[in-house]
Amino acid sequence: MAWVVPAIAAELWNVSVQHIMDCIREGRIPSRSENGFVFVNVAPHNAGITPPKKRPEDRPPTYVMVQPAESTVNESADLLSPEELEELQEPLEDDGPSDLTLVHHRRHETSRLRTPPRRVA
To answer: Would the pTM count as exceeding 0.90?
Structure first.
């Protein structure tokens, strides 16, 4: 038996969830309730759904090997002008503290000034 929630049963049978709920209420679909959840038996005449047994070499792969992209300097040179390549190789200028440093400083100051709640005696 295959027990699923009504939304999955509705999707499997291509009907609305309301139709499934009406059939449960009328007793036309086998259902059960566990821990506040309603389950519907989507295969009432089947003892269980078992996948076909295949030999390991006949099973489809569960992953695909990805080959790393081969990028070369020549490909980059084709995409960028000589000025752009030169600009990328120059060291970055230090503009002082970053925005992230300022945010960290503000959070530290805020937490330092915060007062804890009063203790109730």
So the answer is: no
Using DSSP bridges, classify how beta strands 31-34 and 37-41 pair: parallel, antiparallel or unpaired. Answer: antiparallel
Tell me the C-alpha distance between 96 and 17, whole Å. 60
For residues 38 and 24, is the Cβ–Cβ distance under 8 A?
yes
How far apart are the C-alpha atoms of 40 and 10, rounded to whole Å? 10
What are the residue boundaries of the structural domains of the chain, listed by start? Answer: 3-41
Rounded-to-integer distance, Cα 44 and Cα 76, Å: 62
CA–CA dist 88, 77 (Å, integer): 12
pLDDT per position as a tens digit, 15-34: 999 999 999 999 999 899 99
- CA torsion sign, 7 to 9 to 12 to 16? negative
